[in-house]
Amino acid sequence: MATQSKTQYLADLQAYLKRRYKPKAEPASARLSVIDAVVYGICHEDTTREQANQALSRFKDQFVDWNEVRVSPLEELQETLADVPDPAARAQRIRRFLRQLFEKTYSFTALEQLAKKPLKEALKTLQPFEAFHSDYVTATVVHQALGGHAIPIDEATRKALESLGLHEPDVASLRGLIERAIPKNRGAEFVDLLEELARDAAVATDPKAPRWEHAGKPAKPGKEAAAAPAKEAKAKEKDKAREKEAPPPAPEPAPKAKKSPPKEEPPTPPKKGGGKGKPGGK
């Protein structure tokens, strides 16, 4: 069987996700402004689309403009983000971005000209802002505001793809792989499908879900995990059988007794009395 490419695997995954979630055809949404897209990306990372949309809407309804958000206390921003996980950190990131933007441009409209520039030039302008240290925010701005081809990948999405066997060194590498495999005209749909996948833990054990394997042969989800205990038990049985079959070790020879050195006999004293050659004899 020919080795399956990652491009083909991702195409199969998209087809499977479309069957599973049956997305409704919706008209293409209007682009966000760059600032709106940054705030939306910060709100959306590792949350749902609905939570991010509601948070962005509350900012629009409760504040006059982004400058008011910039000068507002963090507590007020946290209240606006009350329905989003970790509101304190997100509020700080949003206000930090707005303050950096104002210190750099003294304006909240300067970034809107970036949509008319080449994508690489626009990204070069945005990279100094701390908000763009997040690959997810960068991809969201490219996708939602700059008209480029980008598939935002957060940790929840990465873990969902890893549960299907697709591993890459980091989020940026995974995003690059997907963007090369999924063409731009199917990108928006795939973004929505990945959103559903990230919140659907049942996919990992669905036997119909395609799984990426290095050999290119899709396997049933959970098959390796289910077989692991049986493999371990079988290995233990083999080890026990080897122990029984192996001959017992030969007994070690007893240590030889050390010979004691021979005893030295004392010298014989000379005899007393006569005899031939006796001194004084006649």
CA radius of gyration: 40 Å
Q: What general form does the structure show?
A: elongated
Give the second-level CATH assignment, the architecture of the largest domain: Orthogonal Bundle
Structure summary, number of beta strands = 0
Uncertain regions spanning at least 5 consecutive residues: 215-228, 272-282
Q: Strand content of the residues, in percent?
A: under 5%
What does this structure look like?
The chain has helices spanning 6-21, 34-44, 49-62, 66-71, 74-80, 87-105, 119-126, 135-144, 155-162, 171-181, 187-198, 223-245. It has 282 residues and is mostly helical. Helix 1 (6-21) crosses helix 11 (187-198). The protein starts with 5 loop residues before the first helix and ends in a 37-residue tail after the last helix. Mean pLDDT is 83; it is low at 215-228 and 272-282.
Write the layout of secondary structure elements.
Blueprint: H1 6-21, H2 34-44, H3 49-62, H4 66-71, H5 74-80, H6 87-105, H7 119-126, H8 135-144, H9 155-162, H10 171-181, H11 187-198, H12 223-245
Helix pairs in contact: 1-10, 1-11, 2-3, 2-6, 2-8, 5-6, 9-11
